[in-house]
Every structure is written in structure tokens, then in C-alpha cells.
Design goal:
This protein is α/β, with parallel strands linked by helices and 299 residues long. It contains 9 helices and 14 strands.
Length: 299
């Protein structure tokens, strides 16, 4: 006798995989479209999505979609459509509203956003980190522990992205003091723009929207004679492995990309079975205190 597989997620429900029956009747292929598939974040999400879907006799076809709308994005989405996928898990990109292929997907198959959502597609279910809470923890820490007075939030994506907007809003709430925002077109612009901004405004704290941007920002600060954290405090988001080896080590917020991938896969399974799911799920985050904020200990 073949046994089903039970998967239980608190607050979402119990999932039963009838593996033998599904394998006999049909094979489901699911598209996974995220940016930077090969980095630690992408690998963690794709690996857990793949493993979870396999328990339900669904198999993954994944592609790297970059960070913004392009003809290449349309080509890759067209490829997924030609493969006859039955569902799509996607990390949305800037300008996605321009995509004709994506709109066709919405008419035909269930779609789940992962990592963030984007303005104009609020009806699509999303699984993302609790970005607001993570931003709040950073702002609160700088205010309560380091008595910071004036901060700058730096991003190369605009606030139409939920992850960017919620980190910024949460940080402002926790900081309770003056917070400006600097939106860049590219990470590469940071080395030219940041020194000019710091010449005209005196900030004691910088919150870079993610760790890779933080590394570029810290290099720019050090090259221009700023000491971290003596002259300016730095905090970040993601907790990629490089944050442990930067100098100084970076205070950041840890995301659980594996859990994000698992829950997104289970969301899609429910939709394929025409079952109800929540509109969103926010995966808990953790504040990781290191040296870049001014603390004398690190993890």
C-alpha cells in the first residue's frame, strides 16, 4: 500500500501528497523565475522549492529573470510557456507590468510571488520576509543603543517593490527620527553619488537595502576617508555569508530563504488543487548584531 506524505505548516494547513496517484495520472511542471538564481539567496529558494514540489510529483523548470523588464525576460517567460508549465513561482521585477507573456500566464495558470510583490499586482499571493519588522529592528537598535539622530536609506530599486518599501517604512517607525531615502539607478552609481550626498548632509547612520549594496557602500565610505562605525554607522539586510568577513563585520537582518521557498511551493500546490490560501505569508527575520553599527561584539 502506498502512503501519502503529510506536510504541515503552522497557520497554512496540512498538505497530503498522493505520490503514486499523481505520478500515474500526470507529471506537473512548475516554472520558477527569480533573479540571481546562482547566488546563495537564489540557490536556497530554488533548492527548497524543488525539494518540496518533488514530494507532490511536480518538477521545476527554472530561469534567471534579472532585476528589471527586458526583451530577454519576455524570451525566458515564453520558453516557460512553451514547456507547458502548470504554475509559476516568480520574484517580480521592475517594469513587470510591461510583460505581455506574464499577463497571459495570469489568465491561464496560478502564480505565486516570492521574496516580494510589486505595485499593480497586489492580488497575486506572495511569500516574503517580514521586511517591515526587520527594518523596524534596525531603526530601533540604532536609536536605542547608539542614539543615532539622522539616517539615510539607500536602494537601487524604488519603493514600488514591497521589500524596499516595507524595509524603509519599518526603519522609519523604529528610528523615530529623520530618515531620508536615496534611490539609485544602478549599484555602480553609488561610488559617485554617495560622497556628494555626504558632503551636503550630515548623516550619522546609513541603512543599505541589501548586503551586496552595503559592501559597495562601505568600500566607497572607506575610500573617501570615513571610518565605520566611528564617523558613520552602517546597517544592512539579508545576512549573506560575506557580512561575517567584511571589515568591520556588518550588522544586518537575517532572512530565511529556505522557508520562503518551501512555503511558496506549498502555496502553489494548494492553488493547483483549487484550495484557498492566504493572500500573503511573512517569514520571520532575525537581527544580527555585529560591528558596523558601533557594537563591540559580533556573531
Amino acid at each position: 500500500m502506498n502512503e501519502g506524505l503529510l506536510v504541515r505548516i503552522p497557520g497554512i494547513g496540512t498538505f497530503v501528497s498522493e505520490v503514486s496517484k499523481l505520478s500515474k495520472d500526470t507529471i506537473n511542471y512548475v516554472g520558477v523565475a527569480i533573479g540571481n538564481v546562482s547566488d546563495v539567496r537564489g540557490q536556497a529558494m530554488v533548492s527548497e522549492i524543488t525539494k518540496t514540489l518533488r514530494n507532490f510529483s511536480a518538477y521545476v523548470i527554472f530561469t534567471d529573470v534579472g532585476r528589471e523588464f527586458s526583451e530577454e525576460l519576455e524570451r525566458k517567460l515564453s520558453y516557460l510557456m512553451e514547456e507547458g508549465i502548470s504554475g509559476l513561482i516568480m520574484s517580480p521585477v521592475s517594469g513587470l507590468e510591461k510583460s505581455i507573456i506574464f499577463k497571459k500566464f495570469l489568465e491561464k495558470i496560478p502564480v505565486v510571488f516570492i521574496d516580494r510583490t510589486i505595485s499593480g499586482f497586489e492580488n497575486i499571493p506572495v511569500v516574503e520576509s517580514n521586511n517591515y519588522h526587520g527594518g523596524y529592528l534596525l531603526g530601533e537598535h540604532l536609536r536605542e543603543v547608539h542614539n543615532a539622530e539622522k539616517a539615510l536609506f539607500i536602494t537601487e530599486e524604488n519603493t514600488s517593490m514591497s521589500s524596499v518599501r516595507e524595509r524603509y517604512e519599518g526603519f522609519k517607525k523604529g528610528f523615530r527620527r529623520h530618515v531620508d531615502i536615496l534611490e539609485l539607478n544602478r549599484v555602480e552609481d553609488l561610488k559617485e553619488i554617495l560622497p556628494k550626498v555626504l558632503e551636503t548632509e550630515r548623516y550619522d547612520s546609513l541603512f543599505f537595502c541589501h548586503d551586496l549594496l552595503t559592501l559597495s557602500g562601505m568600500f566607497t565610505l572607506l575610500r573617501n576617508g570615513y571610518r565605520i562605525p566611528e564617523d558613520i554607522k552602517v546597517v544592512s539586510f539579508d545576512d549573506r555569508i560575506v557580512t561575517k568577513y567584511a571589515f568591520p563585520k556588518i550588522t544586518t537582518v537575517r532572512q530565511n530563504f529556505e522557508e520562503m521557498g518551501k512555503v511558496a511551493a506549498l502555496f502553489l500546490i494548494k492553488l493547483l488543487r483549487r484550495e484557498k490560501i492566504p493572500k500573503s505569508e511573512h517569514i520571520p527575520v532575525e537581527l544580527i548584531i555585529r560591528e558596523s553599527c558601533g557594537c563591540s561584539f559580533s556573531t
